[in-house]
Amino acid sequence: MAENGTDCDQRRIRMSKEQHNGNFTDSSMLSERKRREREERLNIVLWKKPLVTLQYFCLETLLNLKEWTIKLWRRRGVLACVVLALAALTALYYIEGAHQQYVQYMEKKFFWCAYWVGLGILSSVGLGTGLHTFLLYLGPHIASVTLAAYECNSVNFPEPPYPDQIICPEEETAEGSISLWAIISKVRLEACMWGAGTAIGELPPYFMARAARLSGAEPDDEEYQEFEEMLEHAETAQDFASRARVAVQNLVQKVGFFGILACASIPNPLFDLAGITCGHFLVPFWTFFGATLIGKAVIKMHIQASGSRLCVTALVPPQKLFVIITFSKHIVEQMVALIGAIPSIGPSLQKPFQEYLEAQRIKLHHKSDSAVPQGENWLSWIFEKLVIVMVCYFILSIINSMAQSYAKRLQQKMYSEEKTK
After folding, report:
1. 362-391 pLDDT, tens per residue?
2. How far apart (Å, rounded) are the C-alpha atoms in residues 281 and 8?
3. Spatial distance between the Cα atoms of 134 and 136, rounded to a whole number of angstroms
4. Where would you tag: which of 103, 146, 177, 187 has the fewest CB atoms within 10 A of its CB?
5. Is the Cβ–Cβ distance between 178 and 160 less than 8 Å?
6. Would you call 205 exposed, middle or buried from its count of C-beta atoms within 10 A (0-12, 13-18, 19+)?
7. Taking the domains of the chain in order of start, what are their residue ranges?
C-alpha cells in the first residue's frame, strides 16, 4: 500500500512538473497570490481588526453549525439510535431502585473521565493553538497528590471529598511507606484519560489528509502544503528540521503501526506530520488511532520499568515521572532550602513558599466540616491569574482562527468566480 502511494506521488509530481513547463507557466504568480492571501488572513485578529474578526467569527460559527446539522441529518439513523440510548439511560437514572448506587458510581466516574479526556483534546487540537492543559490542570493535580501522599503517608484519601479535595485518612501508617509506584497508580486514571484525549485531538490532520488524497483535491492548508513540498524535495533536504520531518515520514510510512507507536510514545512536536502522513498514504484508521492511543495514553503516560526512581528508559513518560519526582517531599524541601540560600533576596523569597507548604499541610489534616484557616498566598494568586490569562488567550485564539477560516472561504470563493469567467 505504501509503495503504491509512493508511485502515485512520483507520477503526480512528474505530471505537475510537466504541466508547469507547459500550460501552467503562471505558477509563480499563483504562489505569490497564495502568500498575499495568507498574510491578509493572518492580519484578521481581534487586536488589529476587532469588528471584522468578530463578524467573520460569527459567520463561520453559523456555517459550521449548518454543516454539522446537515451531516447529522444524513446520519439520522445513527442519531436516532443515540437518542434512544440516551433516553433509556435517562429513565434508568431517574427510576428509584437498588441500582442507584451503581448508577451514581458510574455517573461520577464518567464525568471525571470525560473531564480529563476533554482537557486532553483541548491540549492537542485547539483550532490551531492548543491549551496547555498538562501545565494548567494535570500537572498541578499530580503535584497535589504527590505532596499529599508524602504528608499523609498514604494515598487512601477518603472519597468523597477526593478527588475534589484531598484529606488525609484517619488511619495512621508508618513513616516512609509511600512508594513512587503507589503515587503513579493513584493518578493512573487521570493520566490515561488525558492521554486518550490528546490521541483524539490528533485525528483532524489524519482525516484532512485522507479526504484530500481520496478526493484528489489539494486543500489550502499550510501544513498539508508543507508536507507536499517535503515529498517533492525529500532527496535534497539539507537542514536539520527538514531531515527530521523526512525521518518521521519515512518511519511512519515504512514501519507502519510500530513506527506510529514510536512517534506517539515520546515527546514529538512533529507528530502532526505523522497524522498527515498516515492520512496521505491511506493508512487504516484503526492502525493509526490504535497506535496513537497506546502510545499517548499508555506508554507515554506510564512507567514501563519497575524499581528505583532512577530507572529511566526510552518508554518512561517524561511529564508524569518528572512531576512526581519533582514534588517528592525531600526534593521540595531541598528546593525551598536552595531558594533561601540566594544572597540578599533568598529569605524573602523563601518565606511565601514555606507559608504555602505549611498551609497545605494544615489543610490536609482538617476534615471537610471543620474550620480550616484561610489565608491568601501570592503563589496561589499568581497561579490563578496565570490560568485565567492562558484560558483567555486560548479563547481569543479560537476566535481569530475561526475568523481566518471564514476569510479563507471568501478568498476561495473569489478565486473560483475568477476561474469561471
Report:
1. 776 665 444 444 445 566 677 778 778 878
2. 10
3. 6
4. 177
5. no
6. buried
7. 217-306+316-323, 329-358
